[in-house]
Structures are given as C-alpha cells and as structure tokens.
Design the sequence.
C-alpha cells in the first residue's frame, strides 16, 4: 500500500527539517488511510477543505487519550486500590484539549473568562520589555542561540507571570513541559515507557500546582491562577480542584512548547528570506501580516489527532467509526486550492485563512499571546541584530513531529544594537 | 443581451439587499446598458440584521448600515418613490411620483414590510413601533434610550425574540406576548420553541405564551398599557409590534402576474410566472418577495426571508437578466441566524412540513443544543442554539437529504441519548 509509509515519513525524524514534500504527496488523496494494522486504521486529512470540515464535525471527538494506566508499583494495596482510583480520576479530569463538549466548553469558558483583555494587553507591554532585556544581555555576543536566548525564555516568562508561577520555580517547569508535550505525538500514546514517565511527571507537576493553588487561595493575587481558584465565571461555574490542576498544567505546557517554535521558525524563515527581514526592519508595521503568513508557512503545531465517533463520508472515502484521525494542519496550510503558490513565503498574500491555530471549538486559547510575543520578538530581532547569518541550515530540530521546531538556532551576528 | 444589437433598459424594482446584489451581478456579468434602481425608501440599500441588534443597543447608528457596493456612477437611482403599477403589455413601470419608466428587463425585489397593528388608531399611539426599516430602528432606539419602564413585545417570532432579549441586555423590563403555545412555534415548532422560551425566561423576559393583546390603551396619544384577552393588563410605555411581514406585491395587481400576499411566483429558473403559469422571460424576482420551487424540497414553493438567500437569489436573478444561462435552478440551502441577547440561533434547511425533530447534540434544558428536523425519513433542517459550530456538519446532512434520524454518535451528544419528538408547529 503506497500510503502506508507516508504517515511514517511524517513522523520520521529524518524529515523533520522539511516535512512539506511528504505532505504534498499526502495531499494527492485528501483523506487517506494509513496502514497501521488496526481494524479501523489511522486516517490522515491533508487538504484545507477536509481538515476545516473535520475540525467542526460533531462526529469527530478529541477524546483520543487511551484510558489511564498508571505504572504498577508491586505493592498490592497500591496496585489494586489506589491505582484504579487514580486512573479513574485521571480519566475524569483530562486536560480540555483532550475533551469534548459539554465538559470542554465549561473548562474553556473558565479560562477565557480569566484571559481578560486587560491581562492580555498588560502582557503585551511586558513582552516588549522582556525582549529588550533578553537582547540587552547578549549585547556583546558574536553569536546567539535564538532558542535559548530569546524564543524559549520569552513565552515561558510570560505564561508564568500570567498564571502567577513564582519565577524561581520556573526551571522546574522546563523538564516537566518537555516531557508532557510528548502527549501530542501520536506514537507516545502506545509507548508504555513514555506513558509511565508522563504519569510520574503529571504527579510531580500536579503536586506542585496543588500547593500553588492552596497558596493562591490563602493569598489571592492578580493572576490567572488566583482568578481560576477563587472566582466563578459569569455563568456561575468554578472548576473543581482536579480540573483546575489539569487546566493549569495544560496552559503552562502550552505556553512552554508552542510559541518558542513560532518565534524560532519566524527568525529562521526571515533569515532564509533576507528581503523580508529587511522590510520588517524598516517597517515594523508589517509584523502582523508576516506572522499570519508564518502561521501558515511554518506553524508550530503541525498536526492534531482526533477519533471518529461515527462513520464519516468525506472526499470520496468513508472513514469508519472508531478510527484514529490525523488532521495535518501544516499540510492544509500548503494546499494550492486555497493558497496560490503555497510553498512560497509571501507576507503580502491576501486572506490568509491558515490552520495554524487549529479551528472550531479547540482553536488556540493563547492565539493573541502567541501573536504579540512573536511580534515583539521578531520586530526587535530585525531591528537590533547586526548582520545576522545562520550558522547552520537546517538547524538541529527537536524530536516532535506534531510540535515541530528547531532545538537550537545559532545565528552569527556583528553585535546587537 | 450585452452583445445584442439594441441597448436594453433594465429596471430593478426595490432597493434592498437582493436588489443591490442583483444589480451588481448584472454589471459583473457584462451588462453595461442603462440600469435604474427604484426604491420606496429615500436610502441607498442598507443592511437590515443590525437594525434589531446593534442599532437598538446604540452601538451602531441606524445610518451606518448602508451596504458596501461595487456599483458605479452609471446606475440611476430613484429613491423615495415606490413602484405602484406594472404594465407588462406596454413594458412600463409606474411610480408613486407619477413617472412611467419603460423597461426591457425587470428585476422584482420589492421585499416585505412589517405587518401593522390591526387597529390603526392604536397603532398610531406614541410609543408603538414596528421594526422593518432604518427609520423604524432609529425611532425605536431613541425610545429605548429614554429608559421606558417596560417594553411590551407583541409576537414571539425572530424579531420579537431579538427585541425582547435585547431589552433585557439593556436592563429594561420586557414582556413578550405570543398567541402560540411557545416562542417561534410557527417556524421552529413548539418542541424547540419551548426550550428557547426557557432561555429567555431565564434571562428575565416576562413571557406570556398562549395570550393575545386585545387592545392598546393610550392617554393623551401615548401608550400606557395593553389589555390581554385573558383580562390581564400590562403597563408599558413602549410596544413593539412583531407580527411578521407582508410581502410588497400589491403593485403587481392587474399586471397579470401570479402574485398575492404570499409573494410573486417564479419558475425553477427564476423568471416570474403569469396567471396561466407561463414565464415572462423579461422579468425575474429575488429575495423576500419571490416564491419559488425549491429543488431541495421536492419543488415545494416557498418565499424565504433570509439574508443569505437575498444575496444568493439576487445574484442568480441578476445574472439571469444579464443573459447568463444558469447552470442549475436556484437552490441554495436556506440558512439564517438570529442573535437573541447572548443566544445565537442558527438554522440550515427548511423546517416547513417536518414530521419529527431529534435533539442530537447538547442538552436542550441547558440552553445549548442542536435539533435536526426530519420529514418522511430524511433530514430537512437543522437548528443550533448556542452551538453554531456544529451547524455546518448538519447543513451537509440536510443538503444531501441524509436519512433521519441522523448519525448515532457525536461529540456533545445528549447524555440520555437522542430524543425524537413531534415538532409541534403552531
């Protein structure tokens, strides 16, 4: 079966730097079955139209996580009584990117209520300051790593401040976030080692969050976690503690693992298109459209997975009930039917209906944050880096195929102004 | 006809959304001859949906609703003068100001007007409003801004629901009187209408279903209270008459066209029909006033008062009159939305004639749900209440006439399984 290897090729680390030719092959069949050995199979949607349609199809579920199965300890009391209870609690309180309505909607509404315009605006100003400070630290350098020096610390500081995580605890999150982000990589779900490690990590970060939530109840501050822990939404909803812990973890991990790729992919793309870099330097007002094109051209989240609850007829095929779905967002973004000359980076293209933030009810909660963090970072980099050059192209990539981005991005410079 | 030997004259009767899109479509299709647009209101085409929403809250001024247009200076506008008579033999359109305009092609898009309060004396009381045009909306906005003690809404259709819920948003007391068993019972049936009514009651609308206003009492020419047929009195200084619309077809009396208060009849292509059922190939109709056989509904004739329909059928008719042969009969899937306070009701398809309704997603009691209407074992319509994201998938079921009841499993499906009820149209 010729399709059999295409999804494997997407996952194959060898294609990480440039997965787009594989996506183009996948688009020859808008929805294709990938031979994964299961009865219902894994199906990949690769065109803009099919992805957009499936994103809002009620027969498509986000509840893709297999039932919790915490590692056994060998202690019979723990394994027979505590483990099933904990597994049950895990299943009941999944993070809301892995949940369907109505529960998803209630949890998301609580977050959106705290994600107020004032808070987001305040972080915008803060982002610009942070970028300035981070670049000031490297003022005399002749080479920077755009990831470690800016693209990682910026969104991490922003999400921690937004949630009210003390700055000194931030390093703990680095490892936790990297580990938990593997849950978005399809193969990790069937890997018992990774799942066991994720369970341990979830316990660790969950324990930390439980303590922090207690603290926010005793001493509420003006941050999102205090708000979520103490205030109900206008509809009168207040999250229970387990949902609150899970939701906080989701937000913190998302803040750690996505925007970093947007900023890094952004600088990489600009360095590969020096004319665009120069235009941005001269006109920072170009940043918003440039970032929309970036979200199309090199989206931080390349694909998301779903499951079918019923059979679905689409694009001439029938996806059976219970099938695994891969919505290849980054491929839909390169669909020539929607974006003429799709492999060209062109910030001036009209009507960029990209799928970079997903769509429908799971549309990225942090989209406004991501946009202005990227804007602050890229405009400052364009303005302040003197004669930036890529040290290696392509750069080394992080392992993830779904959350895809460079591990490091070394840039030689003649200084920072 | 753009390439025809003689220059033909086109008149568009009506100056609303369908008329505008029709005129634009003619130009885009290459018709460059004389084009005249006639409207009874003194305004260029404007957008009506905001009139019962943002205009009433004061967020949008009534005169900021003018529709953007691609029409150029080569279009003659005759505004403020209604069409009064059509003489097909002489191919002449007569206007209220006495003018007689010759035509070679005519687009009928005269739309509808608000059904007035049956007692004209009471209807003229200060404080009594209808809501159809820009001036109506501006006047009602001024009345609401004066913080009336209570607003009485007569009629529980979409406009009535929008006005009553909007009054609650403004912090005004509102009573809605509806003669049917529930809100929206004619269009959506009482099964769905009942749940929508519960939402509005939850938001503080004083809902009186199964009641009728017998008469409106005034003092010194001002509305002071309404008397219901059950003997109750409602003290109110503003009343909004929301009893539906009347189609503007009187001017077609004597034209020989098949027209009545339900609309002017068209064939499947879009040409109007005369009383013998023969198409008049010089005249097409579009928008609220056009009653046409819908291919999705077994050719049942309907006139649709929907925004998206006015656009799509306007374009269809405009191209037809410009000489573009249609590839298929006009048959866009009917869709509409209604913003009722913070509740958005959206619909795809036609509920008319449905024999069952299935609650397929959400929990109706929670105020967020999707209902699918079935007729003879096929999906004919879907309505979402605060769940618009699911509607496109359901529209697909309707467009393909999928078997009813639809798919058995879905995200956000009701916990107790899908309930199927009689729609309960009033």
Sequence:
């Amino acid at each position: 079966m010729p399709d059999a290897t295409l999804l494997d090729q997407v996952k194959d680390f060898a294609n990480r730097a440039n997965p787009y030719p594989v996506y183009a092959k996948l688009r020859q069949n808008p929805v294709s079955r990938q031979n994964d050995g299961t009865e219902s199979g894994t199906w990949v949607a690769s065109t803009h139209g099919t992805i957009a349609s499936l994103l809002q199809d009620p027969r498509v579920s986000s509840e893709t996580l297999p039932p919790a199965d915490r590692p056994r300890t060998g202690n019979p009391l723990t394994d027979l009584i505590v483990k099933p209870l904990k597994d049950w609690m895990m299943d009941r309180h999944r993070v809301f990117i892995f949940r369907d309505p109505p529960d998803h909607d209630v949890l998301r509404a609580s977050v959106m209520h705290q994600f107020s315009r004032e808070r987001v605006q305040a972080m915008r100003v803060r982002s610009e300051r942070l970028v300035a400070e981070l670049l000031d630290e490297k003022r005399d350098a002749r080479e920077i790593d755009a990831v470690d020096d800016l693209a990682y610390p910026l969104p991490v500081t922003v999400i921690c401040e937004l949630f009210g995580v003390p700055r000194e605890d931030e390093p703990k999150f680095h490892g936790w976030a990297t580990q938990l982000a593997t849950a978005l990589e399809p193969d990790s779900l069937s890997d018992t080692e990774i799942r066991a490690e994720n369970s341990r990590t979830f316990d660790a970060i969950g324990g930390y969050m439980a303590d922090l939530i207690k603290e926010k109840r005793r001493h509420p501050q003006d941050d999102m976690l205090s708000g979520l822990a103490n205030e109900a939404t206008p509809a009168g909803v207040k999250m229970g503690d387990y949902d609150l812990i899970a939701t906080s973890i989701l937000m913190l991990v998302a803040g750690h693992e996505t925007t970093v790729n947007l900023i890094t992919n952004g600088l990489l793309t600009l360095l590969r298109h020096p004319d665009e870099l120069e235009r941005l330097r001269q006109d920072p007002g170009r940043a918003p459209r440039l970032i929309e094109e970036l979200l199309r051209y090199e989206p931080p989240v390349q694909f998301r997975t779903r499951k079918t609850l019923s059979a679905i007829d689409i694009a001439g095929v029938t996806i059976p009930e219970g099938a695994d779905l891969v919505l290849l967002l980054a491929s839909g973004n390169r669909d020539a039917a929607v974006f003429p000359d799709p492999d060209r980076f062109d910030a001036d293209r009209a009507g960029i209906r990209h799928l970079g933030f997903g769509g429908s009810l799971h549309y990225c909660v942090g989209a406004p944050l991501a946009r202005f963090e990227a804007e602050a970072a890229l405009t400052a980099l364009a303005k302040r880096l003197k004669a930036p050059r890529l040290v290696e192209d392509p750069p080394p990539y992080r392992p993830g195929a779904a959350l895809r981005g460079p591990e490091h991005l070394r840039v030689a410079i003649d200084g920072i102004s | 006809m753009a390439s025809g030997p003689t220059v033909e004259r086109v008149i568009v009767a009506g100056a609303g959304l369908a008329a505008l899109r029709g005129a634009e479509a003619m130009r885009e299709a290459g018709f460059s001859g004389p084009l005249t647009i006639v409207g009874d209101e003194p305004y260029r085409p404007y957008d009506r949906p905001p009139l019962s929403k943002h205009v009433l809250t004061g967020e949008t001024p009534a005169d900021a609703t003018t529709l953007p247009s691609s029409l150029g200076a080569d279009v003659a506008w005759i505004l403020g003068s209604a069409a009064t008579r059509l003489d097909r033999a002489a191919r002449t359109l007569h206007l209220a100001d006495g003018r007689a305009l010759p035509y070679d092609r005519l687009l009928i898009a005269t739309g509808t007007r608000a059904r007035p309060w049956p007692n004209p004396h009471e209807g003229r009381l200060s404080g009594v409003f209808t809501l159809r045009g820009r001036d109506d909306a501006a006047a009602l906005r001024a009345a609401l801004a004066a913080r009336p003690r209570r607003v009485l809404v007569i009629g529980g259709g979409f406009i009535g629901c929008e006005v009553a819920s909007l009054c609650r948003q403004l912090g005004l007391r509102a009573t809605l009187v509806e003669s049917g068993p529930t809100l929206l019972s004619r269009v959506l049936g009482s099964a769905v209408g009942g749940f929508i009514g519960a939402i509005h009651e939850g938001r503080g609308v004083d809902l009186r279903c199964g009641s009728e206003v017998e008469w409106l009492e005034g003092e010194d020419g001002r509305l002071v209270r309404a008397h219901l047929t059950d003997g109750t009195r409602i003290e109110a200084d503003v009343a909004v008459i929301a009893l539906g619309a009347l189609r503007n077809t009187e001017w077609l009396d004597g034209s020989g066209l098949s027209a009545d208060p339900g609309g002017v009849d068209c064939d499947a292509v879009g040409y109007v029909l005369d009383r013998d059922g023969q198409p008049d190939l010089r005249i097409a109709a579009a928008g609220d006033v056009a009653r046409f056989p819908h291919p999705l509904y077994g050719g049942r004739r309907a006139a649709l008062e929907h925004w998206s329909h006015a656009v799509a059928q306007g374009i269809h008719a405009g191209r037809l009159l410009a000489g573009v042969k249609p590839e298929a009969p006009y048959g866009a899937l009917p869709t509409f939305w209604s913003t009722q306070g913070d509740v958005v009701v959206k619909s795809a398809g036609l509920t008319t004639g449905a024999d069952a309704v299935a609650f397929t997603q959400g929990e109706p009691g929670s105020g967020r749900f999707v209902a699918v209407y079935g007729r003879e074992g096929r999906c004919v319509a879907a309505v979402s209440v605060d769940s618009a994201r699911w509607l496109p998938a359901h529209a697909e079921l309707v467009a393909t006439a999928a078997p009813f009841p639809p798919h058995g499993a879905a995200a956000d499906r009701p916990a107790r399984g899908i309930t199927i009820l009689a729609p309960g149209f009033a």
Remarks:
- The first helix of chain B runs from residue 17 to 28.
